Amino acid sequence: MTGADELRALLHAGRVTHVPGVYDPVTAALAVQAGHPAAHLSGAAVSALALGRPDLGFVHATQIADRAATLVPALNGAPLLADADTGYGNPLHAVWTALAYRRAGVAGLHLEDQAQPKRCGHLAGKEVIDVRLAAAKVAALVTEVPQLAVVARTDAYGVNGLTDAIERCRVYAAAGADAVFPEGVDDLGELARLHDALPGVPIVVNRSEAGGDRPVIPDADLAEVGVRLVLHPVTALLAALRAASLVYRAIAGGGAGDIDRLPWSAFTALVGQDDALDLDRRYAPGRLPT
């Protein structure tokens, strides 16, 4: 079973799966150790960590794919869902993006219908492109890169309201999307309306802190209205940065003291130090005679 197959299986499992954001091999390994069956790579995280810039179009597909290629091996087979922004252009550009992601080992991507130049999906002033162009991007990916699961995101809710968001999700599902991602639709009643309009179509929702306080709905209720994936794109990153901030302040004050931190032995285990020191493991292919 491929990573895309595993991701599609989660989308049709009849239950909610929480998908955490990872941003390097170590956090990918931690997510797997915690038992997560899938992980997410956020464009905002890559923009911040690679460039020190906000999520305003500074990163491109190549940079997302490069980051994905470093962390996919640490996921130990768990599928990675990656942020593909708007596909970075027209349908041809979107296909190029998808091919780059596939080469990097990505299992699926989500593609949004914002206009360029884009704004962070949680900021005012964003616009959405013509639904036919957005659907053409989805159809191009489904046709040209079937090895990737495609999640079609719409930002129409914050621009034109629920009715347009539902209609766009309907069109994207008809174009072949494996799931729809109605950004900003957090109310259970509105999710139920979407589910009623698109029976059988898996729904992905977002719990990014960028969206402010969101209602915490029990998984059982979400599952009833068709939600299958709940994304937590930057939660771990924000927690790690908060912890690092406290440590740096403590060191500036004279030392880290008793601040809680991962033991060195746990860190070396995460990065495979013991295997690297074993020359047979380092240089010989696993499970093959030498």
From TrEMBL:
Q: Which Pfam families match?
A: PEP_mutase
Q: Which Gene3D superfamilies match?
A: Phosphoenolpyruvate-binding domains
Q: What class of enzyme is it?
A: lyase
Keywords attached to this entry: Lyase
Q: What is its EC number?
A: 4.1.3.30
Query: Where, if anywhere, are coiled coils annotated?
Result: none
Any one Gene Ontology molecular-function term assigned to this protein's record: methylisocitrate lyase activity
Tell me what this protein is called. Methylisocitrate lyase
